[in-house]
Amino acid sequence: MESRNLYQTLKPTFYTASLLGMIPWMRIKKTESNCEKLIICEASRIQWIYVLLEIVLLLCLLYPKWLYVTTTEMFNLTNISSLFEFIIPYSLYFGLGTICTLTLIRAEHQVALIDKIIKIDQKLDRNFKLDMNYKKVQRMSVLAICLPVIVYIIIVILDIYSFKANIYTTLLIVIEIIYLVEFPFYYGCLVKMVCRWVKFMTLILQRKIRESQEIPQGIDFCQNDIKALRDVYNNVSDVVAGINKEYGIQIAQRFILNHISLPYYSYFFYLMIKEERGVLPIIDTVIWLGIFALPVVYVAVNCESVNRASLKMAYVVHKAIRVVPGTRTKIDLNMLSLQITDDKFEFSAFGLFMINNSFLTFIKGMTTYMVILIQFDIQESTRNVTVPEVS
């Protein structure tokens, strides 16, 4: 079955997300009616042990990190920079714990959401015989896994050579990057699936417009197809609502952490250049900037692409209303147009803010503003330092 193909295609992403505690372990089970259903695998019980081990590990890491932050002043930075250095890792660890805890609490709902994703692909393939282009989905899935691994290797090597990091610091880096990179890419994969469905529905409508040119007026030749599209649109709307509900807290936490970290690493980059610390530390800081910035850009751009695809679909529906013959078909097209108007595909961070290009503009402006504030704070602190007289 094609739904099985989609599951097989996304298996690497699902396995990676399950291994990191972002979603429960799953498997496909055949029901009595010979249908396939995604259920929670028995291996999900291991996640309780995983969470307990993670809590113990994080407690072991937090205390040395607290000692390091409170007893070390990196490059003579002021207290505000030390505060950033203290908040960022603690926010990361809290984020990891939140993701794993919500996965345990919402396991059945998250599996049901992924099952809906598979069923929508099956419905589109069964009703409209589309080329589902699973190779492209597979490339997207592999990218979500390979890119973070490459980043792990580069960051660890650069930190060891530029800052002479030890095993403890290296372990901290790996844990931080797992949360920073893997979850936004998994979230972005789900958003890309929604964009893919909207483009498929638009393609189907365009095909019906071309076919209608050879159909006499008054014949409802595609009424059943339009009804099937309305049903698919409702299912996609449920998936979007499910993504916002199941992963809204996690993505909001990730974006808030990004808002805290970007000003710090932006000023850190400026300080590296000003004090001429060398090429490797500068490259290392640039990569950290990319780790905080690029996943957020990736998610926001994908969410914006869904909005644009929805606008294009609305335009094609209005065109189909004018062109496609048949009174009943036009009624169904008008109903589909109302669905698009009333039930838009919008992604939000648990209702706190919408995820789109406007959010990126807000992040960019606030980052610039906070970097300027940090510079003023450091200049003021330097000016107030009194140099003792030498007798």
Automatic annotation (TrEMBL):
It is found in: Cell membrane. The chain crosses the membrane at residues 48-66, 86-105, 142-161, 167-191, 279-301. One of its GO terms (cellular component) is axon. Pfam families: 7tm_7 (PF08395). It is a multi-pass membrane protein. Keywords: Cell membrane, Membrane, Receptor, Transducer, Transmembrane, Transmembrane helix. It comes from the Eukaryota. GO terms for biological process: chemosensory behavior; male courtship behavior; sensory perception of taste; signal transduction. InterPro entries: 7TM_chemorcpt (IPR013604). Its main location: membrane. Belongs to the insect chemoreceptor superfamily. Gustatory receptor (GR) family. Gustatory receptor which mediates acceptance or avoidance behavior, depending on its substrates. This is Gustatory receptor. The gene is LOC107264602.
